[in-house]
Design goal:
CATH class: Alpha Beta
Helix content: 10-25%
Strand content: 15-25%
Order of helices and strands: EHEEHE
Radius of gyration: 11 Å
Largest sheet: 2 strands, antiparallel
Structural class: alpha+beta
Shape: globular
Bound molecules: iron/sulfur cluster
Distance between the termini: 16 Å
Strand order of the largest sheet: 1-4
Oligomer: single chain
């Protein structure tokens, strides 16, 4: 599986700007205010990106695999 998109999904909750995602994977996530994805983010860091999503206390990090068009992780 290849990560094709990572985004801030505030459908249900808002990013609290806690910085947990950046602490886990600072080559992909940045939290200047709300979380943003770095322009040169390396989506090959699958385990780290999934760990960052798992660390988010409000589940606002969404990951798409293989251009599915869906939020595939976390479900
Ligand atoms: S871990 Fe979640 S709530 Fe915290 S800064 Fe990152 S996206 Fe926002």
């Amino acid at each position: 599986m290849v990560i094709t998109r990572v985004w801030l999904d505030e459908t249900e909750n808002e990013c609290t700007m806690c910085g947990a995602c950046e602490a886990v994977c600072d080559s992909v996530f940045e939290v200047p205010e709300k979380m943003i994805i770095k322009e040169d983010a390396d989506f090959s860091l699958v385990d780290e990106i999934k760990e960052a999503a798992d660390s988010c206390p409000v589940a606002t990090i969404a990951i798409e695999f293989d251009n599915s068009g869906n939020r595939d992780y976390p479900v």
